[in-house]
Amino acid sequence: QVQVVESGGGLVQAGGSLRLSCAASGHTFSQYAMAWFRQAPGKEREFVARINWSGTSTDYADSVKGRFTISRDNAKNTGYLQMNSLKPEDTAVYYCYLAGASWGQGTQVTVSS
Question: How far, in Å, CA of 88 to CA of 93, rounded?
Fold first, then answer.
């Protein structure tokens, strides 16, 4: 069964950038669409962005459109979320999800004002 591990979270000032990575085990990463979700304290987990298996189609939540970019490198079994112009309201645990297969354990992103 494929498993994913997120990395790249941390503390950043408002207006800064971070790049999250989602590393998948196994040889089947390219078979799955991938998405990022996030969950802030006291809130429901929410959709952030998704990308199809080939990387040719992407979709974003309105709250991050124009600031975040999702991408993937199937040769490296890794997906990414580039986050620019970060805001305090982006503070959350960010989760990688391979559609129908696996959730990661999450990585904390904290944006200070």
Answer: 13
Angstrom distance (rounded) from CA 65 to CA 3: 27
Q: Distance between CA atoms of 112 and 110, rounded to whole angstroms?
A: 6
Q: What is the pLDDT of residues 69-93, one digit of tens each?
A: 999 999 999 999 999 999 999 999 9
Separation between Cα atoms, residue 93 and residue 65, nearest integer Å = 19
Contact 20, 7 (CB under 8 A): yes
List all residues 6 or more positions away from 88 whose beta carbon is below 8 Å from its beta carbon: 14, 111, 112, 113
- Dig out the tokens for 111 from the structure: 């944006």
